[in-house]
Design goal:
- This protein has about 325 residues and is mainly beta.
- It has 2 domains: about 90 residues, Lipocalin, CATH 2.40.128; about 180 residues, Exo-inulinase, domain 1 (Jelly Rolls), CATH 2.60.120.
- Helix content is about 5%, strand content about 40%.
- The termini are far apart.
Length: about 325
């Protein structure tokens, strides 16, 4: 069978959701339509909810007092429960609350107060952000000339950039913008659920993963991998386009010896998740080793069909 035919067949399989990996919302089924974010109020207080699909009509619910992450929630208590789809919807019963999820809203009571939370779909405020003057457009959907040839474990998609690619040009201090989309993989979990990564200087990974609704950790989306968990889990549901806006201060070297570690400031979907985090050295599984002042940008292929678009980078003059 030719390579072209194999790629076509693999694309069809992924779009249809074989092996539990779905790339097209139109073919994602009822679990995809049910999972997501819900927001409203319980009495006079804002309340947010995140519903995570677990496959086979199973879901996990997280209730957040004050609203959704980045929109009212203070990062405090989480009320959680599991539920299973039935004829009457998905029913959740947790400590101090009960809820029922139908096609359009999550309704129930929490601490004796009734709530109705309609489904919401948030967009990053930096989605579609245009490159400023002086920035280098690394990918605008038209060609991949700014990237070295790569080999992927999944099909390419027109107008999108797959992982497993390193930029042709090397960079040091910079401001990076990119947009990414994780697949819908309801039966998967942990590091097997939409895994990729953005490696600044081919050494410092900011994790890409479907971590929607989870507690922030050093290996979840938004993490400086194995170094620092994000301040807040701002991960949107799978198949939503999401944004990273990252500022890198490269390590400082004098006569080949490092005098200062690299630092990263990052925003996920417009919300600050790292503020000048110090990165002492290459993170786990980095394609580059040692300390350097410049190196290519690298987008990881971790076996899952994660795609990128609107990638641009603004080099900055290095300061001593």
């Amino acid at each position: 069978m030719t390579h072209t035919l194999l790629v076509v067949l693999a694309t069809v399989a992924l779009a249809a959701g074989e092996s539990g990996t779905i790339l097209d919302p139109a073919n994602a089924g009822p679990d995809f339509a049910t999972q997501g974010e819900y927001a409203g109020s319980a009495g006079s207080a804002k309340l947010g909810a995140q519903v995570i699909a677990r496959g086979g009509g199973k879901f996990h619910l997280v209730l957040l007092a004050g609203g959704l992450p980045g929109d009212g929630w203070d990062g405090g208590a989480r009320l959680e429960a599991d539920g299973q789809r039935a004829d009457s919807g998905v029913v959740f019963t947790g400590k101090g609350f009960d809820a029922r999820l139908t096609d359009s809203a999550l309704t129930g009571t929490q601490a004796g107060t009734a709530f109705t939370l309609p489904r919401v779909e948030r967009r990053s405020p930096t989605l579609g952000l245009k490159a400023p003057e002086g920035a280098l457009v690394l990918f605008d959907g038209s060609n991949e000339a700014a990237w070295k040839p790569g080999k992927n474990n999944f099909p390419t998609q027109a107008g999108l950039l797959a992982g497993g690619r390193a930029s042709v040009q090397e960079f040091g201090d910079c401001q990076l913008h990119l947009e990414f989309r994780t697949p819908f993989m309801p039966a998967a979990s942990g590091q097997g659920r939409g895994n990729s990564g953005v490696y600044l200087l081919s050494r410092y990974e900011v994790q890409v993963l479907d971590s929607f609704g989870l507690v922030p950790a050093k290996n979840e989306c938004g993490a400086v991998y194995s170094v620092a968990a994000p301040k807040l889990n701002m991960c949107f549901p799978p198949l939503a386009w999401q944004t990273y806006d990252i500022e890198l201060t490269a390590p400082r070297l004098t006569d080949g010896k490092k005098t200062a570690n690299a630092r990263l400031t990052a925003r996920l979907n417009g919300v600050l998740i790292h503020d000048h985090v110090e990165v002492p050295g290459p993170t786990t599984a980095a394609p580059g080793s040692g300390d350097v002042a410049q190196a290519p940008l690298y987008l990881q292929d971790h076996g899952n069909p994660v795609y990128y678009r609107n990638v641009w980078l603004l080099p900055k003059a290095a300061k001593p």
